[in-house]
Design a protein that fits this description.
The chain is mainly α and 190 residues long. Helices cover 76% and strands 0% of the residues.
């Protein structure tokens, strides 16, 4: 009947089930959905902030003099790109949360896994290199490889629930694959 991105029918709650006394009041449903969006954005912002703590001290340290891939962008590119990616991935997860699919829980669990892998990569790559050397970069490569698989799984799980959500995850997947190539070069060259 409707598209996958359509709102629940009149008299249905955000989970698609009929409510006891008719339709939920729009302001309450809107407030809950807005709070959920803020929650997803806050989770992404927290992961970004925690990751930045390992980056800040090392990007001008060992990483500044490290042998980087010839296709590595300048450092100033990473902040804006990650800001956009963290925002779009949070919106994608929120769209899935709003969906009515029985696969919604699995999709959001995989999203949580990829968020944890995302969080793990930065301190391993930037923070452990001064202690472990190249071994830290190889470990980071394993983590970012797992991250790429988890993000690909999100794309595949999100798409059938909300097409827009799946599409919003594609730039993130592309960037993670690109970052994997940078990580591989760094591991092999430092």
């Amino acid at each position: 009947m409707g598209s996958r991105d359509s709102a629940p029918a009149a008299g249905a709650g955000t989970d698609g089930k009929r409510t006891g006394g008719g339709a939920q009041p729009v302001p309450r449903r809107t407030a809950v959905e807005l709070a959920a969006l803020v929650g997803f954005l806050a989770a992404s912002a927290l992961v970004a902030w925690l990751g930045s703590q390992a980056t800040i001290t090392n990007v001008t340290g060992w990483y500044a003099v490290a042998d980087k891939a010839p296709w590595s962008p300048p450092n100033w590119v990473f902040g804006p790109v990650w800001t956009v990616l963290y925002t779009t991935m949070a919106v994608a997860a929120w769209l899935v949360w709003r969906g009515r699919s029985p696969n919604r829980k699995l999709a959001l669990t995989v999203y949580g896994v990829q968020l944890a892998l995302n969080l793990a990569w930065t301190p391993v790559f930037f923070g452990l290199y001064p202690v472990w050397g190249a071994a830290a970069l190889w470990l980071a490569l394993g983590i970012i490889g797992a991250l790429a698989l988890a993000v690909a799984a999100c794309v595949l799980l999100f798409g059938p629930i909300r097409r827009t959500a799946g599409l919003l995850m594609l730039p993130y997947l592309s960037w993670v694959v690109f970052a994997s190539s940078l990580n591989l070069w760094a591991a092999a060259s430092n």
